[in-house]
Amino acid sequence: MQPHLKQLHQSAIRSLNEGDIQHAHKALVELVTNKPDFADGYFLMAMVNLRVGQIKKAIQLLDKTLSLDDSRIEYTAQLAKCYSLTGQLQLAKKTALSVQLDTIKLALDADTLGVALTQVGVHEYAIGYFEQALALCSNDQPQHAQYYYNYGVCTKFLGLFKQAENAFEQAISLNFLHHQSHFALADLIKANSDKNHIARLEKIAKQVSNPDAQLHIGHALGKEYQDIGDFNLAYLALEQGKAAKHRQSSFDNNTSQALFEHIEQLSVNSQHQLNNGNPTNEPIFVLGMPRSGTTLVERILSSHSDVQSAGELQDFGLCVKKLSQTTSSHVLDMETLSQAYTLDYEQLGSSYLQSTRVVTGNSKHFIDKLPFNFYYIDLITKALPNAKIICLLRDSMDTCIGNYRQLFTINNPYYSYSLNLLDTAKFYNRFYKLIEHFQSLHSNIKIVKYEELIEHPEQEIKNLVKFCDLEWQPACMNFHLNDAPVSTASKVQVRQPLNNKAIGRWRGFKPHTNEIENYLMAQGII
Prior knowledge:
Blueprint: H1 3-18, H2 21-34, H3 39-51, H4 55-68, H5 73-85, H6 89-97, H7 107-120, H8 123-135, H9 145-157, H10 161-174, H11 179-188, H12 198-205, H13 211-227, H14 231-248, H15 253-269, E1 283-288, H16 294-302, E2 307-309, H17 315-324, H18 334-340, H19 345-360, E3 365-368, H20 377-383, E4 388-393, H21 396-405, H22 421-441, E5 445-449, H23 450-455, H24 457-467, H25 514-522
Parallel strand pairs: 1-3, 1-4, 2-3, 4-5
């Protein structure tokens, strides 16, 4: 390659590493224009697009890269990652597993493939790639902390809690400011007055300034203070940890209210439409507010030999978006929902089924446990009229505190209400009233009240099994013995027998909860 082009290549790499996206892009455009067969030029262009969120464009550029040179595992690993980020789980899994473990020579490549497989939800495959990444770490450097963290998350999903604890501690030993590992460790282990990380967390809280880092450390402190029974300090730690992130991305209650009202109006306007959806009875949708018992119900039903857990699938919303062909940047918005009611419902149902096959295979029934599928209940009944829909309801105060206490996916607009307790209560109010509305329209929705499930487990579990048209199996009562991976916030709790420890927990946070209690009473929820 000519010296001038080599300089452009090195300049682009340097700029990309320094975060100078504009300079990197300019150098790469000139580079591939002058040398259109240079694979790494297209690869770096893909990384530029990935940095700015243009994932579909990145995939196109990676396809071009691999057409010129398919020998570098780095290219394939990044393509698998991009597929997972866009919800193309089947392609992500196929692409990642096309790389044999013993051919990987760089830790970053192995780790990237493991992350892609984790996104797909096949943690039993992902763990091998994370182990390979750790084996390829020639020395302990601060940047290797992320490899240990990713391995720890995977082992936690698989129920290998001691291995997860060791991995998070190793990550912290390499990089004391690795905030994700501090939170993951606090979330994994129940602290007590003799064994906790509070002093260490208080120390790091004074050192971090990034809103995401403050959020993680605030949640870690909140969890451990609550574990030792100091609910006041727990709430104050959460409030302080969330403050900067809330200022950065406050929740838009007006837009949220308009969306809920639009969904309700669309369902009323379309209630006399002919339903010619896909007739399959495979899917069981378990939905509701997060932290309301959805994972518990999933574990109960997936303990049945005819039912497979598929995890929290994004597929229904993605299929709605894809078939609606709206140009808005959001998967869920009023324009997309309006267009969805003009779709061929059979095509929508079939597209959803096809897209889930990567994780559902050919099981007789599978559970889709994405809580926010409640937005799509009316469309689900049209596209999949024989699907079962189970909605969890939990005490409003416990649900609101549970959501406020939970560290959800960072920068996901679905969850930004949880950065403020009153916003959380307002969101719960909209959810509750939407579910009441859907109950008045549809007879195929089963409401399960969390407290009744805890108080009368045998009766409620048998009712669940019967609703799903399943034959009774005692394994459903022994759900805590189910050893399938869990990738939700309840990964520890659902491996324990039923207990009522979480009922009424919100009372410990008084008087911080007085405002939302008054609000929910005024709304008629309490």
